User: Fold these one by one.
Assistant:
Number 1:
Amino acid sequence: MVLLFLLFGKDANSQPFHYLDVGISRSSFNQLSDIYSNNWDLSSVNSIQFRTPFYIGTAGVGLDFFSYTNKSDNTFEISSLNASAFFGLDAIKTKNFIISTGVLIGVQRIEASAEFFGENPAETELYTALALEPQVKLGNFILFTEFQYRRIFNYYRQNLFTVGLGLKYRIGIGEKLRGFID
Amino acid sequence: MLTTRFGYSQDIILKPDENITPFYTLEEWIYSNSNWGFDSYDFKNIQAFTPYFSSELEEAPALFINGERYLTSWLTNGTFNFPEISFSQIDSIIVKPYQKVTNGNYTPNGSIHIFLKDLKNGVLYDAIYVNQINDPGPNIATEYESNNVEVLSKKKYHVLSIKDFLNTTLLYNVEYYTRTNTLDYNRKFTPSLFGRTIIRLPSGGSVLQRNRELAFILKNTIENSNYKLNLTSSFTTKSQHYEWHPISGIEVPASHRTFQIASNFRTRKDSFYKSTQLNYSFSDSDSLEFADASKPKNYVIEQQLHHTSAFGFDYKSDQISIYINNILYSWEDEITENSNSLFNHSLTFNYLSEKLGSINLFVGNHTIGLDFKKPLSNNLNIDLSTFRSNLNSSGYNYTFWNEGIGFSNLDPSIHSVTNSSSFTNIYSTAKLSSSINKNNVKLTWNVYPVHYWNFVNTNINYELISGLQQLGSEITYTDEKNVGFIRYYSALSMSPIPKVNLRTTISGRFLSYGNNKYLENVEGINNLIFTQILSYKADRNLVYELLYKYISPRRIHEYESLEDISNFYISRVRPIKLLNASVKTWLIDRSLLVTLSLRNLLNSTESYNTNGQYYNMSIHFSAILHIGKK
């Protein structure tokens, strides 16, 4: 990661936090691990993300929600909440078109009915993802598509591929507020 | 200052603000950054392998907080009461691995000096969360079910600082530390070998294995132009704690409380009398086993009272200091009805001279010795010491094991202690060290031979007793003559391109000599530790860091006779290859510090004792909020 940032050192930002992109998106999953796809269907993912120019590239946080629908009565329905941090760089950048790449590091929290998990109804697990986001800028709005390869580090690794579409709104951050954040 | 020249050139200075790679506990952080190996089976009970390896090992380094002694020992465990302090509460730590006499105390394993941050008037809040991979996830009720892996660590630290009222600093820290009792070698290979204790409730249910700790530390200072008085009070409870007891061959769950008060009075007058320090500590421990509620397994009380007074004067350009030190140490076991006390006293004479160097003469009823330091040239120093130390008079493990203190489950038919030792270590050390600082490149190295004229050797042999959870143990104490080793340490720090810093540290042993009994114990210590840190400071407020650490394998001969029963080399602790990546950023005018790290990216098995847990990749998240004047 350090080397990556050294290579992309040119992406160093002289004005961190000078705007905030708030986005929502909806994606659908493609399950790459049979162990999980045999037992569950995954709902589509609803996400909210916050991104801002960082000292290098872009940084942000995000939350997404989806559920595991059981295919048989042997398993249970599970809801999932995912919180992540994002570190990205713009690979291609023109006035209205940007392709950004990045990594996400996060934690998945799953929860099922109480009797299923006994005393601990919730479980958390680390996940990482590689993301590619082509974006079109239309004034303060940004239309984006999102491709993610996600790996959840359960004992049997769970690999997922997502494709989604979303919309971001850019909010300028004034000098005063930026001074507060920085 | 004369002391700067003789004292600090070889000290290891640790700055939590400059180091971001994740650690489970403060102790681990200090030992890892000093490039010491250690023995641990859950990161909570840690036994450091300090550069001076001896049977005094369990005495551990002496700890000082803001210059005041903090008592960390409990019976045979030298670091049991290591304070629960967060990195965020610490400004710096100075580790003096070779200093045999510290402020009038005999410190064979060196000393650790913690300096807390001066927060002015303010509040600091720090939360840490660690989660390890390999949970079953959704598979918990399918044919792919695997063992559950609990959240590894949750900690919350608080500091309240009121400078205007008695210069008050209050630390209130809570640790909620899980032991993943499913993830040990033991369960993976041989389910019956080591007795992991599950606390059974009278109702038949069990209690989840978690080390829980709550700590308060209150510091006050009263001063005027004539004197300065520092007061430190601390109270720690470990409501659940699990500790492996070498003699009883089993892990014992217990609750533990410690209350400690320290006062340090220093005069500001230019007089012969300089200062007086008093420490009092009261600890007790009770069993958590409910199996037979009518008969408690143990209840032990320990009390310690330490006194040190310092005197000194200048003679021409030289400094002469004298320390008087007294230690009263007592314990009481209500189950075995054994109680005992020790009283030790010593006198230290310190002479600091530009021409001759530094001389420490230590004379006590338990220890007598001489330490001499001198610069040979601008960059080269020599440090010679010779000590004779009686282990039994300072509360050695033999004392407790022989009396069965705290081990009411000892059965003479399966546990034995035999002794043909004088319990006297006689040793000489000669450290040659150098520190060169040029053009942003800093190189520090030392070579440290230790020769024992007499060495108190402890050999433990375990055997499996069928039908019993605990192992049988056979402990033998012997005297070994003319044994020793040579240790080396080297650290290189440089900045090849702006904003990038590289730090390389390597330490290990050249040579060890002596008979087999001694060498078996030396093999229990990692021979080589290599650490490489690459950090990139992208901005004043943003740092990335990569750490790679290699720790060579070690051999625990105590487990050798269990090897036939186990399905793996239980006496061999595998090498550790650790790769960590971290990022930290300050926000809101450096009031909020957020750190995100991945530990063990290679996901190679990380374990420090085959009788213990092993660790896989984990995510560490911490947020530190500081409100107040900076």
Number 2:
Amino acid sequence: MGHRHRPGPRPSGRDAGSPSDGERTLVLPGEEIPGGGLRPGPGTYRVNGHIYASVLGLLRRRPPVVQVVPLSGRYIPRAGDTVIGTVTDVQGTFWLLDIGAPRWAPLHMTGTPWKIDYGETEQHLKVGDAVLVQVESIEATGRIGVTMNGEGLGKLEGGSLVTISPAKVPRVIGRGGSMIETIQRATGCRLAVGQNGRVYIDGPVDAALKVRETLRLIDDEGHKSGLTERVDRLLRESRGDYHPAPDSGARPAPMDGDDDDEGPDRPAA
Amino acid sequence: MGSVGAKEVPVLLTADGRRIDGRRLDELRPLAITAGALRQADGSAYVEWGANKVMAAVYGPREVHPRHLQVNDKAIVQCKYNMAAFSVDERKRPGLDRRSQEISKVIGEAFESVIFAEEYPRTSIDVYIEVLQANAGTRCAGVVAASVALADAGIPMVDLVPAVAVGKIAGQIALDLKKEEDNFGEADLPMAMVPQSGRLVLLQMEGHMTREELSQALDLGVKGCRSIYETMKDALRARYRATDPATTEVAA
């Protein structure tokens, strides 16, 4: 087998390419990619001098490499990501968290603000509890290190969780946090969005259901144009007193381009 | 031409080269594939192929469930093929049997050879194939569905894996046998192929063929696979088409 690479970055954030990158073709596994002298990057492989896609995604030429940015798949953690995990196992000195990644992530008790003696872990977090944590490190073995020490991190009490595709997270946040701001203002709920596609909603049940419906819309149609208008319409349906925020209504371009700024993970409520 | 009795052998091939459903020897049954048919799975696909109806779901890469199966430097591929109790005329006794165990094994090994498993060490990629309605060639329909589901799940692999069964009916090599042809024919040769390299990753045979017939059958099967491959790609493009630059509006 030829040259291998780890899968490419998710199609989000500034480095995922601006319109100036030009070509953004959908490719499927096994599809030959005209190399044009470029080296095989993430999401591709090379056999006998020919380059092929290994994942379904968008082709991106970034000299000196050509890569495929995946459009689907599990959350691939990156150091610095803020994510929402649920506790799946409790050990003497650490908890195992499901963050939607290929592996469970151990949260060691030293990574928490609490002072804990051996065996007292379960007094703080039990199986099923949700936490907002930050990815610290990814090891070569695939082990994912997470911490709860940091501003805004901690156990999520009450509220509810909705899971969407990690690839749609930038759409939920919107440029400069505009989308999440719109949703929070219209529903009165407080949101925390993890890079892993989990969204924590804190607010009255009716409003939380409305947020869930909105998130489903973004998950299903977030890649199409005119998202902002559709979200506005959906949010307005439920509330007669809802008025779109002046800045979001006046925005000329839909904010569903790939080059959106990612907003803060947890904007002030 | 009366109705076909239980013991009576139907006419599998007419004098003018038509099969029981009017197909020629080198024709496939109608094939329709839907990528992304399930919400909960990481990837999924639904296949209707002739009278076959097959659903496939892919989960992972995720934690290996019986821990001892975990491999330190790569992902394992676990495949489960199952036929619903209502998938055949006579109720099938549900659950594992020798046939479904064998099929799970050969399909799992076929995918193991195309998936870049070293990218996800100590994890499992789980493939579930559920046959809802069976009419011969379900393992091939299962491979096709699972392969599309794997691509939908974003699993890195060499290529999609089209599959088809070739057989021998009335002394002739025929593509994509249906139930009566499988039951009353002389041979059945399911195969799965990697179009990128032309490599076969699944090949089984039941019945008898001469060497010449075998090589003729393989050629016919490869042609069938190439055609099925196109349908598989179309299904995936249809699901992700909206993300294509042609229809994606890029913010200024």
Number 3:
Amino acid sequence: MSGRKTPPRTKSPGVEQARILARVEKRFAVHGDDDIMAAIKQVTQRYLLSKLKERRDK
Amino acid sequence: MISKPREAFEKILPRMGDLPSIPSSVSRVMEVLDNPRSSSNDLADALAMDQSLTTRILKTVNSAFYGFPRRIETLSQAVTILGYRAVRELVTVTGLFQELDKQASEPGLNRPEFWRHAAGCGLAARVIAERTGTGRGQGIFLAGLLHDIGKVFLDAFLHDEYLEALELAGQKQTSLFEAEMRVLDGANHTDFGYWLAEEWNLPPSLTAAIAFHHDPTLSQDHYTLVCMVHVGNVLTRALEVGFGGDDLVPAVNRQAWSSLHLTPSLLESIVTDFDQRLSEDLPLL
């Protein structure tokens, strides 16, 4: 018997943002306070958040 | 785990089938591209020898990106429109990668995501070159595109060992580079890539990018190019463009960063440019 499927739950923007930032932190953790890697981490955070916004605005 | 990686590589060579040589149709196209006296008709003739290349080129030139009001039907028209550089890159991607992907098996390296990472690295290296004014030319994209070719070799021909390295990297939160060294008796994909590049007689600049993209300071003759590929690789992995086999972001070599005169604000503009080109150029590859 097939019933109506529950639509996938959409995560709130805040939750997704936090998840992205946590993932970036984890992927860069090994570099400590290296200034060059900190600069790359910052652009990465901005880039991934902008991609999230693009997806949400579509 | 294997011991004596170079010996393992040598043993694989005889059973590699077509892999050690670039497909002859691709070699022929490369020859025409390298000949300054060749015409677009010569190039179209060489391309016509290979059905998959022909299809790919016509598909690209008829894509929405070029937006021509009428359909381009002939290769010589397509070559004129795309230009030699774009044709060279399409030929490389189509010819070499299709050959290599014949050996793909599951589970293993996720090939579509891997090639996206490779092409992203090529694009990032090219944007870095343009933005820093440190280099130009078609070789930059290709160097980025092929930098991890050793991973494809390992995934295809030492599959069980490579799967072990991929799983090790995933489980232990260690870099794939380090996991490879554990499983491959101290060797890694840059060693295998270098040996493969030598077998293929690839140009020295491409060989250097393949061999030294994890440590550009080891490169003597093509240092700037290797630095661009090195930073391009780190950036592509950081921005999660495709997947290189593990989640960690490798460190940028400070000397490479300085020699390209990179700064945080320049990096910002590189990423903006890269992002725009990624959506415009990458779907075509």
